[in-house]
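<instruction>
Derive structure tokens from the sequence

<record> Sequence and structure tokens follow
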Amino acid sequence: MFTLAMRTLRLRKGGFLATFVAVFFGALIVSACGGLMETGIRSDTPVQRLAAAPIVVGGQQTLAVPEDDPATLDPEDKHKYKNATLPERVRVDAALADRLRAVPGVTSVVGEVSFPAQLGAASALGHAWDSAALTPYALTGEAPKPGEVVVDADMGIAVGTTLPVAAHGTVGQYRVSGVAKAPQSMRDPALFFAASDAERLSGHPGQFDAIGVFGGDAAAVSAVVGDAGVVTTGADRGALEFPEVAKSGENLIVLAAVSGGLSAMVMVFVVAGTLTLSTQQRQRELALLRAIGTTPRQLRRLVLGEALVVGLLAVAVAIVLGPVLGNWLFDQLAANHVVPDVLRFGQGWIPAIVAAGASLLAVFAASFVAGRRASKVRPTEALAEAAVERRWLTPIRLITAILCFAGGTALAIVTVAVMTGPVAASTAGPAVMLWAFGLAALSPGVTKVMAVLLRWPVQALSGVTGRVALRNTRVGAVRTAGAVTPIMLAVGIATANIYLQTTQEAVSNQAYTEDLRADAVVAGPGGLDPSVLGRVRATPGVASASEYVSSTVFIEKPFDSNHDEDGWTAQGVSELTGNAIEVPDTLGHHVGDTLSLRLGDGSPVDVRVSAVVKQRAGFEKLVLPAGLLAPHTTAGLAPQLLVRAADGVDSATLTARLREATAGLPVSIGDRDALIAAHAKGNEVGAWVNYLLVGMIIAYTVISVVNTLVMATSRRRREFGLQRLSGFTRGQVLRMAGVEGGLIATIAVLLGTLVAAGSIVPFCLVVSGSPLPSGPLAIYLVVLAIAVVLSLVAILVPAWAATRGRAVDATSIGE
């Protein structure tokens, strides 16, 4: 049967190509997403500044978060704890360096501090000069003394120049004493200061970002460090130099998993539809094989053999090109600051195996189902079975539809009854696929029903060609459903995901603006010196001003059942002082309660509840004193001041006075619109990621739509020829095909809209209280227009080609 399968493939290049395209693009996307996931898991970050140090000691960037109340857990049972990534850089005590120098074999210990600095419009990272040995840098000139700086050679600044350097909220004049050249390319240019200046400008005196150890043994160093930090060697050193990579890697894993899983499910749809349609078009051939004595098992082996040959070829090409697509996607994410540019893309053999396994499994399952019907008929009924479509509703289809509709309904109930805020998308999103699966299982019957409902408007608009198109749609419901399903899927996925994103953005912006009382903002790229607050408050026209700090904190005691590894969003403001905290009412705490927290850098602190407030569901946050929160952030300072205007002072006047009051300081002034725009831009980054990955999946679905429709229409040459011999003109045949295309598009759009509504409506009810999504209607209209144009083009072009010759010649061509 394998030899026969190879021969039939040579004679059926159209079906071969259609199946190849469906499997290839599915495997390609799954492989690329697998590469992104592997990149996130590995989080391979080449070391730069710390390259010369064989051993690097740094802070522990993870925090063990219990899944249940610690009072009921065994501290030794590590399976009941989850590791949360701390959002702020965790530093180590500078005294640890002295202890490390006493380790046998250690020849040198160098502490590293790193802080943002600004030279005019150029950004750089400041360090102490003695840490240049960690790279190492080659010096031309002299090492810096207090009040001096060594500049990076790439900055092109000469020795002896005096420069204004902004760092830690202040501007100072520094004389260039030397120029340092790095042995390799660095992400950020370096400025080297005297040790006393670097300690002051870092904002974290008595602490190091990392410690480089030369000589000695890693095990001996670990014994001295203990729980005070982590010890890394080799490639792991990059994680201490760039701690932000850890969180980005986690986000990349989630993005790739969601996109890859969605792609795999879409692939099942597309491959199954393509193979089923291809097999249906060969019913006469398969029926004849049954009539001459071919056994059901041989027929199944024939169909399976053909599918696996095509699948193996498609998978082989896809896994070769998968890393190329994955690397391109990663470059787009890095270029748009979704992941750090220091993270290195890497794809091994595991994503290729997963993509190949998933694709071949889909091929195997689809070919088994496609060949099962042809193999079950009795030889005496085979030719009749080939000529007329029989029963399509099988127990498997019915059970699949019931389970999918039940799952979609359950997710809708969970979304409305349990979820709050943007997290409702985690249950609303998957519902799209369940509703689509359910409708796809019943699509022949649903297509017939929809064709009946659309009968009167179609006949009124298209006359006799419309009546023929309607009859073709009803009689060939299984064939038509094969074209409807991928369009329904494309419309459903596109509409649901885009409007989920636009609604989430709108609600997030609304939640931000309704709590915003500021009329202006004072921002500093490396943080604001605390003295700026006093100057701003003393400015005429200012009613109030507050520092504004954002971070993440974790509640340790009492145990928070809502707690997870993401922690709580925390905001620091100047209105609170000491160890006060304002909490949302959903936490169930009362004024006067004491909470034990872990701040963003892992530091423990006890705070007292000073207020309990009602906050918008899904956007709850903890409010702490800025003076308590800011020192435990990476910058160590508040990055913004929010300013409210006095009565009668307009925005333009306020910002002008603020610029005058902060002249000479490294700050920028913006109005309320600038604040809102900055927040919206942050949301746009997440939206861009969603659009990129979902767009890739939709592009695959669009390809499958064209693939299916072209294949289905090209095989109808004999049918078109018979219609022309019976009195139809070529124009009437093309108009009939156009009506069929419009009918398919209309049915698919209606079903796709229904599928999307099953996801959008519950989500919108939760986040906005309205069943309608936020976002321009033009999005939906564009999706509809694309679906209609694709359907018409994919049907009319092959129909035009199929009717080019003489009608009598077309009737002599086999089915």
User: Anything to note?
Assistant: The chain has a mean pLDDT of 83. The CA atoms of residues 445 and 544 lie 66 Å apart. The first strand starts at residue 55 and ends at 58. Residues 525-666 form one domain.
